Amino acid sequence: MAGRVLRRLARSLLLLLASALVSYAVATAALSPRAYFEDRTPRPPTVAVDHELAALGLDDRTPVAERFTHWAWRAAHGDLGRTLDGESVNAEFGRRIGVSARLLLVGTVVGTGLGVLAGVWAAVRKDRVPDRAMTLLSFLILSLPTFVLALLLKDGALCFNNSVGHTVIRYTGESTPGATGGLLSRLGDRAVHLTLPTATVALGLVAAYSRYQRAATLDVLAAGHLLTAQAKGLTPGRALLRHGLRVSLVPLTAFLSFGFLTLFTGSVFAEQIFGWPGMGSWFLEAAQRGDVNSVVAVTLFAAVTVLLAGLLSDLLLFALDPRVRG
Amino acid sequence: MGGGTEVSDGTDQAPALDIRGLRVVVGAGRAEGEEAEAVRGVDLTLRRGEVLGLVGESGAGKTLTALAALGLTPPGARLRGSVRLLGTELVGLPARELARLRGDRIAMVFQDPSAAFTPVHRIGDQIGEALRVHERPRPSRRAARARAITLLSDTGVPEPERVALSFPHQLSGGLRRRAMIAMAVANRPDVIVADEPTSSLDVTVQARVLAALGDARETTGAALLLVSHDLGVVAQTADRVAVMYAGRIVETAPARELFARPRMPYTAGLLSAAPRVDAAHALSRVPGTQPAPGKAGTGCAFAPRCPVSRPECRVTDPALAAVTQPERGPGRPAARAAERARAAAGASAEHLAACLYPGAGEGAGGGGLFPVGPPPAARPRATAGAAPALRVTGLAATHRTRRGGRLRAVRHVDLTVAAGETVALVGESGAGKSTTLDRIIALTAPEAGRIEVLGRDTAKLTRAEAHRLRGRVQIVLQDPATTLDPRMKIGAILAEPLQAQRVPRAEIAARTPELLAEVELGGEAADRYPHEFSGGQQQRIALARALAVRPELLLLDEPVSALDVSVQAGVLDLLRRLTSAPDGPACLVVSHDLTVVRQIADRVVVMHGGRTVESGPTDTLLTRPRHPYTRTLLWSVPRPDPGARRPLAAPLAPLSGCDTTTGCGFRAQCGAYRELPSEQKRLCEHEAPGPNGPTGASCHFPYPDDATPPPGRPAWRGRPGAH
C-alpha cells in the first residue's frame, strides 16, 4: 500500500514537471510582459524595460528554454520568482492559497455529498416527480456557464435581501470588513459570505454527480446482492444503505479527479465575481497584465491540487473496494 | 430420513409453503407493450420437511417463482396471487414484517453467488449479519462472526476462519455456494429455496455443494424448494417434482412417478432429451422453442410444439388436474410396491398434469412422442496407418499471472486424434483443457512438447504454411451469441472463412445454402441477422461457419453447454451426424460434461491439474475407469433416474502438506493413495506415474476393471424409497 502511494507520488512529480514546462511555454507565448512595461506613461526607455524584464527573469531576448531552466531551478529551491510589481510570488501565494483552499474544500465536500444524496434519491424515486425534477434541474445547471450561474445567484440574493429589508446574504469578500464580535459571530459572518461562492462552484458538481450516482445506484438496485440482503431479512431501505451505497460509490471515485477540474475552473469565476482574493482572481488579474510568473504559479497550484485529487480518489477507491486491493 | 420427513401432512399444520394463483408481471412501469406476464398462475405446495424439485428450461419462470416464495421481486416486477409461508400470507404484507420472516423462517440460496454476495463486505460479516438481523438480543459483531465460522465449517468449508475473513471475489465458485448455504441456514429456517444451487459448477464441486445442502436440510429439518434445470440433480435429491413451462406448472408428481411415467408431453420430451452418462442413446428432440414471456397465445402454451396436440389444445388452456393412474403392467412390481409403501405412509401420491389429453402419446414410451435422432451408430474406426489428424505429445504451457509470476496451466498433455475420429478432452475448470485447445489452434511452436496438426509439426511452419493449414482446422466456441458478429448477416458470416481462403465468389454463393441445409436451417437464413435466431440455431450457424472450408480437423470448445436440454439434443444429434459421416472431419471436443461426451465421442482423454491422466474408448472409460480421478468424476455425475439413487461421490479434501512437485500430481486428492500400505505410498510420492500405463491410466495402482465406487463420503445421502 505504502509502496503504491510512493510510486504514485513519484509519477505525480514527473507529471508536475511536465505541467510546469507546458504552462510556462504557453504563458510566455501568449503573454507579453514587455507590453505591460511599455504601456506605462510616460513610455519608459527600452533599456529600462529590458533591465526590469531581466530582473524578473522575463527578458524575451534570452531563449525560452534558458528562462525556463532558470525559473525551474529557482522554483525547485522554493522561489517562484517575482510579480511584475517586484513583489515575491511566494508571499502573494501564501496570502491567497488559504482563501482558495477554503472555497475548494467546502465546495468539494458539499458538492460531492449533495450530489451523491440527490443521485440516490432520484434513483429510488425513478421516473417519479422528484427524479424528473432533478433531471431537469441538473441539465439546466449543467448548461449554464459558471459566471452566468454566479451572476444569477448574486441577483437572487440581492432580490431576497431587498424583499426582506436588510442584508441577510452577504456575498462580497470573505468577511464583512471591520466586523466585531466574538469568535462565533465572526465564524457565522464568514459562513454567510461563503454561501454564494460555494453554491456557484458546488452546484455544477451536484448536478454532474447526481447523474452519475443515479446511474450507479440504479445498477446496484438491479444487482443480485441487494436481493440477497433482502432475502436475509433487511428492509429494502436498509439493504440499499448497507449493501448498495458503498458499491455504488466505487465508480464515482473515477469522476472525482475529473470533477475537481471543473470545480477549479468554477472557482476562478466565483472568486472574481464575489470579490474573493484567492488564486482564481489572481490568475485573471495576472493574465490580463501579462504577469508570467504569477500565472505559472497559479497553474502549478492547479496542477498540484488536481494530482492530489487524483491520488485521493485512488485512495478512496482502495478503501471502498477490496477487489482492487489485489 | 431428513429430520422433517416424519412430520405428517396433517390438517392442523399449514404446509411450509403454499403458492396459489401466482402471477408475476415483469417490465412494469415501462411502455405498455413491454409488460409481460412471466409467471402465469402457478400453484405449488411445499410440505414441511419435503424436497420439491422445480424443473424447467431457461425462461420458464423458475427464478421468479423462487423469488416470489420469499415475497421478493426483481426491480420493475409485480406480484399477484397468494404465497403463504407456514400459513402467513406474504403478498401484501408490510415490508417490515416481510423482512422479519425472510432469512428467519424462509431463506434463499441464490443462483449466481458471484453476484449474490456484496463485493465489499467480508463473507463472515455477511453471514453474521443474517444472525444480527434476526436474533434478539442482538449478538455482537464478534459473536456473529464466530458463529459464521461454525456455520461455514458445518457446511463443509475447509479453513472456515480464512474463508470468513475473505471477500467474495477471493473465493472459488464452489466455496461461495457453500458460504451461501451457510448463510441461508444461519437461523434454522423452515423453508430453504435454492435457485440453481449447482449450475455452472464442476460435477465434483456440485457433489460437494449438494452434500452441504443435504446436511443443512437434515440438521434443520427444513423443507427445500430446489430449482434446477438439471434433471440429474433433481432426480437424485427431490421427493416430488414440478415441471414448469412458459410461466406455468405443467406437471407435478412424486419423483419416481414423474420420471417413470410422465403424462404431459413436454415432460416426456424433456426427459428423453436429456443425455445420460451411462449409455449412448438416441436423444429425442423437441422442435421449436418455448414462447417468450407474454408471447404465449390462447390455449396450451406447449401446443405449437406438441406432437399429439389436437385443435382444442390451441383454444383451451388446460388447468392442472389429477391424472388417472393407468393400470400398471405386470413388469413393474417394484413401482407397485413403492406405491403401496407410500399409501401406507399416508403420503398422497397425487400426480397432476396440465394437459387435455394426458398420456396421449403413451405406449411407445415417452421418447416415442418426439422425433428421435439417429441412434449412435457404430462409427468408422480410424483407418490404420493413416497419419493422425492431431498428435500432441508432452505439451506444457504457462500463463503470465498478474503478479508477474508464471502459472503452469498445462504440465503434460498427450493426445492423439486419428483421422475421422472424435475425441473428447474432459476435465474440470482449471484442468488446462482450454489452454490445450488454445495452444493447438495457435499453430505455433509450444513452450514445451510437440504438436502435429494434420501431420505438420507446428514448430516448423512458415507463415504461409500456417495460413494454409488454418483453412483445414476450424474451431467452434462455447457461446454462439458472442462468436457471431451481431452486425453481419448470416450469409456474410458463412462467406468469411471462404473469403479468407480466397475461394471465388460464385463458389461461395453456391456453398452458403448447402451449408445451411447441412446444419438443418432454411436457405432464407442467409439474409437474416444472428439475433433473429435462438441459441440452438446460433450454434448451428457457428458450426456451419466452421464447416464452410471443409476442415479436416474440427475443434469444439464446450459446444452445447450454453444450451437448454431440449435444444441441446438437436445440436448433439447434428454433431453426431456430421462427425460420423464418412468424409467428416476429425474432432476434438473439449467438455466438462460427461453426459454430452458419452453421446458424441469415440475416445475420451481425461485431464486433471494440467496433465492427461487417463484415455481410452468412451464405452470402457465411462463405465470402468481405472484412474482414481476419473472414477470420482464419473461417480459424481447425478443420473436422471430417481429409482436408481446412489450416493454421489464427493472428492476428498486435499491432504495438507502434500508436496506434489515430486511423484504423482493427483496424490493429495487421491482416495486410493490414502488406503495404500506405506511402502506402496512411497512409489506415489517419489515417482510420477508414466503418462500412459498399460491400462491407459497414468497411475501406479489403477483400479481393477470393475465398477466399484471410489472411496469418499457420499454427497447426498440417498433416501431410497423415501417419499
UniProtKB/TrEMBL annotation, chain A:
It is a multi-pass membrane protein. It holds the Pfam family BPD_transp_1. Residues 97-313 form the ABC transmembrane type-1 domain. CDD domains: TM_PBP2. The keyword Membrane applies. Residues 1-27 form the signal peptide. Keywords: Cell membrane, Membrane, Signal, Transmembrane, Transmembrane helix, Transport. The keyword Nucleotide-binding does not apply. Belongs to the binding-protein-dependent transport system permease family. This is ABC transporter permease.
